[in-house]
C-alpha cells in the first residue's frame, strides 16, 4: 500500500527535460501571420502520394500510358513538395526550443525522412521508363509510400493535437 512518504517521493520526481530553458516555447516560428507553413504545405505531398497509387492502379486496370505518365508526374511533384514541407518542418524543429526538446518531434523527423527517401526512389525509378516501371515494383513502392505517408501524417497530427506543438506557448 502506498504511504504518504511514497506519494511525496513521486511528487519530488522531476523530468530533467522539462526543466530545460525554453521547454514551454512551442509556438510556430516558421509561419505566415501566425499560420504554420509546415501544416499548410504537408497537404500537397500527402495528396500526391495517394494520387501515384491511384494512377498506378488505373494503369494496371486500363493499360493506358496516360496513367503511367500521370503517376510519374504525381511521384515527382509529391517528392519535391515533400522536400519543401520537410524543410519547413526541420526549420521548426531546430529553431523552436520546446519542439527541439521533445522526443516525439524527432520521431516524426525520422519517419518523415524515411518517407522522403521512398518518395524519391518511387520517382527516380520511373525516370528510366515510366510505363515498364509500374508493374510490379512501381505499384508496390506506391503502396508502401501510402502506408508510410499515412503514418507520418497521423504522427504529425499527434504532435499538434496531443503535444500542442506549433500552436501556442506553454503546451
Ligand atoms: C522531414 C522533416 C520534418 C520535420 C522535422 C517535421 C516536423 C513537424 C513538426 C515540428 C510538426 C508540429 C507542427 C509545427 O510545428 O509546424 C509537424 C506537424 C506535421 N507534420 Fe511534419 N515534419 C517533417 C516532415 C513532414 C512530412 C514530409 C510530412 C508529410 C508528408 C509531415 C506531416 C505532418 C503533419 C500532417 C503534421 C500535422 C499538421 C497539423 O495538423 O497542423 N511532416 N511536423
Automatic annotation (TrEMBL):
Asked if the Swiss-Prot or TrEMBL record annotates the protein with the keyword NADP, the reply is no
Instruction: Please give the Pfam families that the UniProt record associates with this protein.
Output: DUF2231
Residue ranges spanning the membrane: these are: 39-61, 73-96, 108-128, 134-154
Name the InterPro entries for this protein: DUF2231_TM (IPR019251)
Q: Does the keyword Transmembrane helix belong to this entry?
A: yes
Record domain DUF2231: where: 34-168
Key words, A-Z: Membrane, Transmembrane, Transmembrane helix
* Protein name (Swiss-Prot/TrEMBL): DUF2231 domain-containing protein
What species is this protein from? Pontivivens nitratireducens
Amino acid at each position: 500500500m502506498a504511504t504518504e512518504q511514497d506519494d511525496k517521493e513521486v511528487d519530488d520526481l522531476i523530468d530533467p527535460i522539462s526543466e530545460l530553458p525554453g521547454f514551454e516555447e512551442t509556438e510556430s516560428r516558421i509561419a505566415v501571420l501566425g499560420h504554420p507553413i509546415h501544416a499548410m504545405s504537408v497537404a500537397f505531398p500527402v495528396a500526391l502520394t495517394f494520387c501515384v497509387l491511384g494512377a498506378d492502379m488505373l494503369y494496371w486496370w486500363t493499360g493506358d500510358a496516360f496513367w503511367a505518365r500521370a503517376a510519374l508526374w504525381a511521384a515527382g511533384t509529391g517528392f519535391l513538395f515533400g522536400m519543401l514541407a520537410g524543410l519547413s518542418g526541420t526549420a521548426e524543429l531546430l529553431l523552436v526550443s520546446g519542439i527541439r526538446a521533445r522526443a516525439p518531434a524527432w520521431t516524426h523527423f525520422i519517419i518523415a525522412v524515411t518517407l522522403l527517401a521512398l518518395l524519391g526512389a518511387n520517382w527516380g525509378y520511373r525516370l528510366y521508363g515510366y510505363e515498364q516501371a509500374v508493374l510490379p515494383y512501381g505499384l508496390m513502392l506506391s503502396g508502401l509510400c501510402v502506408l508510410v505517408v499515412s503514418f507520418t501524417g497521423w504522427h504529425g497530427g499527434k504532435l499538434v493535437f496531443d503535444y500542442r506543438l506549433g500552436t501556442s506557448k506553454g503546451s
